[in-house]
Specification:
This is S26 family signal peptidase. The protein is of the alpha+beta class. The protein contains two helices and eleven strands.
């Protein structure tokens, strides 16, 4: 084989490897983009959950005991405490559709089991209106936090958390 022939074959092989690598890279990026549409990694800066790293799966079925991440509703109370555009909240699902939520002396019950106690006022001294009671509507959840200062469904400013607000189900990592 002549040196010129080797050079041509070598250039063709390099070009083939380059195109193959570009194709594999494009495939990897599109797979990663599809994965990212259904998943997220979130850092928790709130003391209302004991985890600081949470893996979120969008569109996963929600069950009692799950942690869900959601966009909080807009209200003057939330704006004052968390800013005009608060970050997503993460809370534990205590009540699922069909459960009965009751309140007595600011203690909330799900199907007769105590799950949380509501405070009288916020850390800034505003009175805290009580959240919803009754049957949890279809597509909605009653969420709580183990933290005494957790801001969740026991307060009217949060209330039921329904489908469109839910970003996904969280699994604690750390």
């Amino acid at each position: 084989m002549q040196p010129a022939d080797r050079l041509i074959r070598s250039a063709s092989a390099r070009r083939l490897v380059l195109w193959g690598g570009l194709g594999a890279g494009a495939l990897a990026l599109s797979s990663l983009a599809a994965f990212a549409q259904g998943h997220a990694f979130m850092i928790n800066v709130s003391p209302s959950l004991p985890y600081w790293a949470i893996w979120v799966t969008r569109g996963a079925p929600v069950h009692r005991g799950d942690i869900i991440l959601f966009d909080p509703p807009t209200s003057p109370l939330l704006s004052k405490h968390f800013g005009a555009k608060p970050k997503p909240f993460g809370k534990r699902v205590s009540g699922v559709p069909g459960d009965i939520i009751t309140e007595q002396n600011r203690i909330y019950f799900v199907n007769g089991q105590a799950v949380a106690k509501a405070k009288l006022e916020s850390r800034f001294g505003e009175p805290l209106a009580l959240g919803p009671t009754g049957r949890v509507p279809q597509g909605c959840y009653f969420v709580t936090s183990e933290h005494k200062d957790g801001f969740d469904s026991r307060y009217a400013a949060i209330g039921w958390i329904c489908g469109p607000r839910i970003l996904g189900v969280g699994r604690p990592i750390l």
